[in-house]
Amino acid sequence: GAVVSQHPSRVICKSGTSVKIECRSLDFQATTMFWYRQFPKQSLMLMATSNEGSKATYEQGVEKDKFLINHASLTLSTLTVTSAHPEDSSFYICSAPPGQGALGYTFGSGTRLTVV
Amino acid sequence: AQSVTQLDSQVPVFEEAPVELRCNYSSSVSVYLFWYVQYPNQGLQLLLKYLSGSTLVKGINGFEAEFNKSQTSFHLRKPSVHISDTAEYFCAVSGSGGSYIPTFGRGTSLIVHP
User: DSSP assignment, residue A59?
Assistant: First the structure.
C-alpha cells in the first residue's frame, strides 16, 4: 500500500533556529501533500497544502514566512519551521490524498517538535 | 462547509467489553466518512471508510461503523476491546465531489482497562 515516510520523528531545537521536516512518498507519486499541526488532546488542524511545482496554499492564520513549504518533486515535500519559538512546539503530520485504488489518506508518522 | 462532532472526548472501558465511539457530521453535500486511529506519537492509520453502498462498514482490528444518513451519524463500534485498542480515534468527513480535503473531529480517547 501507499506509504509516506516522515522524518525526523522527534526534534529538539533552540529558539531562533530553523527545523526542516521531510515527507516522502515511497511507492507512489504525491502531487499534493497536506501539512497538519496537532496540539495536545486536540484534532488535526490543516496548515497548508503543497503542490508539486507550484506555491503552497496556506490556511487562514498560518504564517507563510514562518512555515516554509516546498514540494520539489513528486515524492518529496518539506516543511521548514523558521526562527522557531517555544509556541511552535507541536506535533506536525503530513498526509497524501488517496490515489487510484487507495483506501484513504496516507499519513506520515508525525514529527514531535520541541523548541527550548 | 462541513463539520464533525465527536461527542465524547474520553471513553473508558474494561477489556473485552463492547464500545461505541460517537460521531455526527454536518454537510451540505454528499460525503465520504472515515475513522482513523492514532497511537501515541504516531501518525494516523485508517480504520475504515464509507463512500457509498452498504451502510455498515467493516474495518481493521474488528471495528465497524454504521452510516446513518437521517441522523447524520457514523458511530464506530467494536464488540470486544483489547488493551491494545487504547488510542485516540478521529472521525473525519470529506465532500464526495470537488474539494476532498477531510475535516477531522476533535478525537476520542479510548482507554481500555484490564
Answer: P
